[in-house]
Amino acid sequence: MPIDQQKALLFGAAAAVRLLLFTAFPSLPNLLTGRVEISTPVTSFKRLQEGVFLYTHNVSPYDGGVFHQAPLLLPLFSLLPNPAYYPFATNLLYTIVDLLGANALMHIAESGQSATPRLFKSSRKELRWSSIAIGAGFLFNPFTITTCIARPTSALTNLFILLAMAKASQGAGSTFVLALSVASYLAMHPILLFPPLLVLCYDVRATKSKSAPNPLAFTAFHVLSLVVALGGLLYLSALLTGSWEFLGATYGVRLLLPDLTPNVGLWWYFFTEMFDSFREFFLGVFWLHVVSYVPGLTIRLRKQPLFVAVTLTGIFAVFTPYPSIADGTLYLSLVPLFRHLFPLMRYTFLASSTILYASFIGPAFYYLWIYAGSGNANFFYAITLVWSLGLSVIVGDSLYAALRDELDVERPELRGKEVKRI
Amino acid sequence: MRCQQLSTPRRRHHRKMPPSTQVDALSTPTRAPDGSETAANAAEGAPARRQPPPESNESMWTRRAVIFSFWAVVVFLGLPVWWKTTAIYRADLPLQAMTDWADGKICKPVFPLRIAVEASALQSPDAQHLIRTTQHALDDLNEFSAHHLRLMLADSPWTANLSQQVVSDGLRISGKDEDIALTIRLVPVETGTTPRSHLQQYAPTLDVYYAANQIPPASSTSSPLATFIAHELHKMFAEEQAQLAYLLSTTSSAHSAKIKSLSPETAAELERQSTRALKYAPTYHLTFSLFSPTFVPSAWEIESALQQYLAPLLESFSSISNFTVDSQVQLYAGFSPSIRQPEYDETLNAWTLRKEDLSGFINAAEWPLSPSIGIGPTVNFVLYVPDQSQSPLLVKENGGNSWLIPQWGGVLILNPAQAANTANTPTTLTREALAPAMHTFANQLLSLLGLPQTPNSLPLRLSTLKRVRAASLLFSASSTLGALARLTRALPSIPIPDKVAISVDFTTDHLQQACNNLREGRFQGALEHARIAEAEAEKAFFERSMVGQVYFPDEHKAAVYLPLMGPVAVPLLMAALKEFKGLSARRRG
Q1: Cα torsion for B216, B218, B222, B225, to the nearest 10°?
Q2: Helical spans, DSSP H, in B498-553
Q3: Radius of gyration of chain B from Cα atoms?
Q4: Category of A340 on φ-ψ map: left (φ > 0), alpha (ψ -120 to 50) or beta
Q5: Average pLDDT over residues B272-278
Q6: Which of A131, B65, B124, B447 could be a cystine partner for A109, CB 3.0 to 4.6 Å?
Q7: What is the helix (H) or strand (E) element at residue B395, kind and residue range?
Q8: CA-CA distance, A239 to A255, in Å (whole number)?
Q9: Which of B505, B285, B466, B299 is nearest to B380 (CA)?
Q10: Mind spelling out the 3-state secondary structure of B308-376?
């Protein structure tokens, strides 16, 4: 079967599954929208509806403190018919978003930047999955499907992150910057992906043009275009809402965590317990913790920039203030790009079982806490710890595998032998 | 490789060994060398198999860059965040000025009272001379320097532009000019004992009647009339002086040394008065309650009674405090079970309550007398109409029917059947029936508000109260400032928000104005400024956000920082240390 036909079949099947779920279970989208594991205060579809309602009634959407999402989503969603009566258009939009994301993911896989970047050839580079398999892994991942059905705006963020990665791995500098700025505009933290993706883009450009461009000029140009693109988006938003107050209501909420609704992350519980006078300090510490990985990983794994970007998405899925399983699914869909590292990973069983454990017990414990009243907040918090543990085990294990892979290339005689840190 | 590096100092050490050991070592050549020596030899023997190749320059620099990048985040972002978010904001307070206020160093309150003398029948030089002699007599009598009376001629050039017009019309000037505490009207008479005086009850005017021959001649330095007026004035303001002296002596140690000592009886009386009176508030709430153990009386004409008997009084108080009023009727309200039931007294022909039971008369558990409604303190007035079978009800010891509960209110037992000479208790208490109760309540209210007993002129007593209140507010606000300054010095770990600094500035500003007003004799203005100063000082002292950190000792900070910062700091520090060690070792080797 030719590759195009396979792709069409895959996309058709994925779209069919989604549309079927939407139509066969009409109450499913609303049920999933209310789940804290999928919908956070900054991505919830319900809150988006509230914002759209206020926006179409000429009230500032940020009045009332419910809506915390980017203003440019409002005109987009106000164009669609009301999802309460005509859900098909919205459903179709989210299905298309998923398909486009899968398409971008397949482009990344086809670029081969995961196993054979410019400065590094993995010794196991022949060990890889086809782009169709990786696309299928994304499209038929149950987490992706539930995210799509629940319709949080993090699905859009994921799409733009994947697009940015795809464009960077194709060396398309301006589209990469554009996609990344949209992703950062929607969710703020993707801007941290800029350094590794810029390195990736530079490497690809250097491979393609045979003579490496001047790194300083390249960086300056792209930083400048990122600033221009982001500034343009923010300015457009200010024009749309009539003031700059959206900054506090969107990015301010992400930075300062005023809404302590439970989610699968680690922040909410910590900050419900924190002394008020240390709250600002620990907000700073938590954010700096996320930020501190970016330069370290980018420098250490200079030769594998795509791996750095993927690892960072995994770190975001654990350590950002409002993560959801949408962030987890992005990371889990990107990991199969590094099929060549799988033989070197040591805790795959542990990681996959903790992830499965958390995904099954999490909703049950949440039910015990909130509805049955027989549990308490610690039940759910314990499960979010397990979920974060599972993701961090994958992050740490894959990091180890990537370093081991580099060592194998550097010193081929040590291949397959026990190594020890000295 | 590490072993090789280690072996070098070991050898050096070996060479430096004391001779005896060397001899020892030489004497037993067969003894095996120590372990490290062996290991070094072994390592030298097979370096390729056991030891990794030397680290490449590139990877070394990568490692350094990575460690540096983490440290850069910590130092360039983390430290500023830490500094910014945990710094305790302490607004600058004028601590020295605040302490000075509390110690009374800035403001020494004085009470210059202006007394206008109207002497329309006298020639101006005569009148001037009379005033001068009276002033001399008055100054000789006065022992309290902060409080002095200054006489002035009503139509003297000093006040002429103000009062000329009015005086020529034959009207009193004091009604127009609030700063005049008292007006003395000199009236020549032919008959009766002279000099004699009459204080008007509802105006701050003292009428002095004199015979024409009592005007002091220009040559004399004293005269009976001048002495008489001086003594009258001294007597009139004696209680005010005593009150102010008492206030100065109790509130501030700095003043007590300078004022005359009060006689113990006066001090005890003043203390009794001050414990009885309510704390000053700009607004008081008055609650009038009718309690009856049966179903009658079920109505009272309280509104018109209040309008007639109390409203004028409250009106006259309006420059000092405002009042809100409500009333309630409570039927089937028996008195407290904790006191003895009334007994019938044959001699009084009445039912009697024991005096010691009066304090338990109010049935706090069942009577709905809420402690405070609205912002101000509540003053309760209870009208109790006893059951017909126990009427009339009186207090056993003195046959009275009303008493005052300090700082709370007043109680009156009304026996309407006895008053109206009817057998039955009326269902409605008319305005006329309430009149005695209202008069009693009015008197009780005056005591509760701290109005002095003398002189017998309401405007004068009110203006006395105004001065006393202004002074006490001034002292109270000053001492609050002092307490805040002490608190700020004693607890360096509490934050001081800007709000507090603004309030303090506001307080000192108004205190200064109040003080100036006092000095210039404008007591109404002084009271208003002192009132604002007091409110602001209280606001600053009881700022909520200041006390949050008081009970947060430094040991607790370790408990906050360590669990999270420890695990992060250990690898960071170790990596940096290792790198420095490696660097210095390489430099040496």
Answers
A1: 20
A2: 498-519, 523-541, 544-547
A3: 42
A4: alpha
A5: 84
A6: A131
A7: strand B393-395
A8: 23
A9: B285
A10: HHHHHHHHHCCCCCEEEEEEEEECCCCCCCCCCCCEEECCCCEEEECHHHHHHCCCCCCCCCCCCCCCC
Which residues are CB-neighbours of A319 under 8 A, at least 6 positions away? A265, A266, A286, A289, A290
The Cα A53–Cα B476 span in angstroms is: 56
User: What's the CA gap between A343 and A84, in Å, rounded?
Assistant: 48
Nearest to A162 by CA among B256, A144, B401: A144
Of A276, A283, A299, which is closest to B66 when you measure between CB atoms?
A299
B143 phi and psi angles, rounded to 5 deg = -110, -10
Which region, left, alpha or beta, applies to residue B450 given φ > 0 means left and ψ of -120 to 50 means alpha? left
* In chain B, where the domains are located: 2-50, 111-242, 278-445
Question: Which band of pLDDT confidence, cut at 50, 70 and 90, is reported for residue B421?
Answer: low
Distance from CA of B482 to the nearest CA of A (A): 27
Task: Name the residue facing B73 among A277, A278, A291 (closest C-beta).
Answer: A291
Task: Tell me the one-letter amino acid at A301.
Answer: L
Token pair in block for residue B305? 């009674």
CA end-to-end distance (rounded Å), chain B: 13
d(CA B71, nearest CA chain A) in Å: 9
**Interface residue of B550, B560, B562 to substitute, partner A, most A CBs within 10 Å:** B560
Q: Is there a contact between A135 and A10 (Cβ–Cβ < 8 Å)?
A: yes
How confident is the model over B439-452, as a mean pLDDT?
89
Q: How far apart are CA A54 and CA B23, in angstroms?
A: 97
Q: Cβ neighbours of residue B181 under 8 Å, at least 6 residues apart?
A: B113, B114, B115, B149, B204, B460, B463, B521
Asked if residues B527 and B470 have their Cβ atoms less than 8 Å apart, the reply is: yes
Beta bridge partners of B329: B290
CA distance B505 to chain A (A): 27
This model of the complex carries an ipTM of: 0.80
CA B410 to CA B518: how far, in whole Å? 34
CB neighbour list of residue A62: distance below 8 Å, 6 or more residues apart: A51, A68, A241, A245, A246, A249
Residue with the two structure tokens 């017909």:
B388
Matching residue, tokens 């390249």? A218
Residue B111: closest CA among B280, B229, B273, B237: B237
Contact yes or no for B52 and A292 at CB 8 A? no
∠ CA B312-B314-B317, rounded to 5°: 110
Contact between residue B244 and residue B452 where contact means Cβ atoms under 8 Å apart: no
Token pair, residue A240, equals 């749309």
Per the structure block, which two tokens stand in for B103? 């110690």
Amino acid found at A74: L
Q: Which of A275, A284, A292 sits opposite B85 (nearest CB)?
A: A284
Could you name the CATH architecture of B111-242?
A: 3-Layer(aba) Sandwich (3.40)
The one-digit pLDDT tens for each residue of chain A (422 residues) are 677 899 999 999 999 999 999 999 999 999 999 999 999 999 999 999 999 999 999 888 998 889 999 999 999 999 999 888 888 999 999 999 999 999 999 999 999 888 888 888 888 888 889 999 999 999 999 999 999 999 999 999 999 999 999 999 998 889 999 999 999 999 999 999 999 999 999 999 998 887 888 999 999 999 999 999 999 999 999 999 888 989 999 999 999 999 899 999 999 999 998 877 788 888 998 999 999 999 999 999 999 999 999 999 999 999 999 999 999 999 999 999 999 999 999 999 999 999 999 999 999 999 999 999 898 889 999 999 999 999 999 999 999 999 998 888 888 877 777 776 66
- Helix (H) or strand (E) holding B300, with range, is strand B299-300
